[in-house]
């Protein structure tokens, strides 16, 4: 079942903050040469917290950046991206489609076609007889108000019934409810159990969330190693957040097999191509700094530019540095100042860029401000 908007945002923030403390410090050592563009630890980043995985309500905002040499490398939380934002992006190959077995699910077919009243009638009849998949479908429709007035309490009941009968999607959704304590008593132990079972049953979102729980409950490299197999399984199913996690872990885990380390960039690129803005930012930085492979300033510039145009504040900041230092592009003081103005307005302070901005002439400053205003209006 798809995650709701707020759950996706919290999930993205969890991934970013988890790596802020556990993973990214190891990237500096993985680089054979000094970084051309550093990504210091964002001052408001915090360790991953227990009980935050998969919460139903919440929000996350992209953080800021400091001067390149001020602090060790770190991660900046991302608000994630919605499906409509990923449309039009060049996507990685889809996982191989599993052959259909058994009879067609008429209720789910009606649901996919938007025939919600029909779907609910068909699914409810089966759900009352103990069909776990139908119970999950009924719960989903009741939770969203499809074909019936929204009823979160009834939806929670049906998610619980589906979870008890082992439906992977039902177990995942019920685990989220147990974790958040909404419409059912908070029970972390039971939530973890259902999340683990859903992950082991092949639900990609549960695999990612169970990996997050393992990282949270097992600090240090132990948790990363326990989580990696579940990140890998979710990544193989096309989950961009998991692809990003796999890429980071392949580089950061000291004794990861050499063949996996060589695949790190591939996974990062797949997450970037799916429209995950944090992956686009890191793909650009990896290429510029030579992480996980040789340096490629032009491709690195391209990825940072994509992330900057999508509104990633850190990418906007780093793009200014590339324009100043002519890395992957020709030097352009007005473009550099434009991107700095945009990132500064978002609250990202950078003394080096401030010195550069004050050093250009008044006409260039006016052009940069005009360009920044046009970008914001666009």
Describe this protein's structure.
This protein has 378 residues and is an all-alpha fold. The protein contains 20 helices and no strands. It folds into two domains: 5-94 and 210-377, Serine Threonine Protein Phosphatase 5, Tetratricopeptide repeat; 106-201, Serine Threonine Protein Phosphatase 5, Tetratricopeptide repeat. The chain has helices at 5-22, 25-30, 83-86, 106-112, 116-127, 132-144, 152-164, 168-180, 188-200, 204-217, 221-236, 240-252, 258-261, 264-273, 277-289, 297-309, 313-325, 333-345, 351-359, 362-377. Helix 10 (204-217) runs antiparallel to helix 11 and helix 12 (240-252) runs antiparallel to helix 14. The chain is elongated and about 75 Å long. The model is unreliable at 1-33 and 39-89 (pLDDT under 50).
Show the helix and strand layout.
Elements: H1 5-22, H2 25-30, H3 83-86, H4 106-112, H5 116-127, H6 132-144, H7 152-164, H8 168-180, H9 188-200, H10 204-217, H11 221-236, H12 240-252, H13 258-261, H14 264-273, H15 277-289, H16 297-309, H17 313-325, H18 333-345, H19 351-359, H20 362-377
Helix pairs in contact: 1-10, 4-5, 5-6, 6-7, 7-8, 8-9, 9-10, 10-11, 11-12, 12-14, 14-15, 15-16, 16-17, 17-18, 18-20
Short précis:
The chain has 378 residues and is mostly helical. 62% of the residues lie in helices and 0% in strands.
Say which CATH homologous superfamily of the largest domain is assigned.
Tetratricopeptide repeat domain
Mean of the pLDDT scores? 81
The dominant shape is: elongated
Largest sheet: none
How much helicity do the residues have?
55-70%
Whole-number tally of structural domains:
2
